[in-house]
Write a structure and sequence with these properties.
Layout: E1 14-16, E2 23-28, E3 57-60, E4 65-67, E5 75-81, H1 88-106, H2 108-111, E6 114-120, H3 128-136, E7 143-146, H4 149-158, E8 163-166, E9 175-179, E10 183-185, E11 191-194, H5 210-220
Parallel strand pairs: 5-6, 6-7
Antiparallel strand pairs: 1-2, 2-9, 3-4, 3-7, 5-10, 8-9, 10-11
Amino acid sequence: MAGHAMNKDAAIPILPSIALSFLALLAACNMGAGGNASSGDSEQGELIGARIGAPFTLTNQDGKPTRWDDYKGQYRLVYFGYTYCPDVCPVDLQRIMQGFSKFEKARPALAAKVQPMLISVDPQRDTPAVLKPYVAAFHPRLIGLTGTKEQIAKVAKDFVVIYNPEKSDGATDYMVSHSRTPYLFDGDGKPVALVPVDDPATADVDEGAPDKVLAFLEKWVK
């Protein structure tokens, strides 16, 4: 399962979100991450009515301005992470995009209505040139977005994402702790539900398997 690529022995603090009824899990990518982001069994997504998201303008992997409202009318599958993350981000993105690829094959017309995007929480290193080969490795339709530190801080706040660069004294490299909450937004840019990701605390269950991402998309994308 995906959790096997992560360090399960690390203690992971849980921080309450100021805007949601669920808990946002803060996890450094080098420590692993937990918390199941599932859509639930209700007919209405658990994020319906939550104050998540706001218009923004960032820079995509081609160096071009990209606006949130450029995708008005499309569902938006949003993942916050960064390219230097050694385990959690690439594992999550791989499995989410594998599920999306299955969705494309099963429901091509519906999949065409979904725009997947990675928003970097490490704008200092994640330049467009760095993002371009990274997102292409997961799926040709995945876009990568970056910006200034101020722009990313504003977007993270609007999308209820917590992140924190962690640099040891004397170290030249660093990790970025961030909340692990992949979102699905509807065509109006309103939050619908959390995309499934694996919980390393449950070794016998793979909550983030591509088939579960496929089932999630089939349930919510109309």
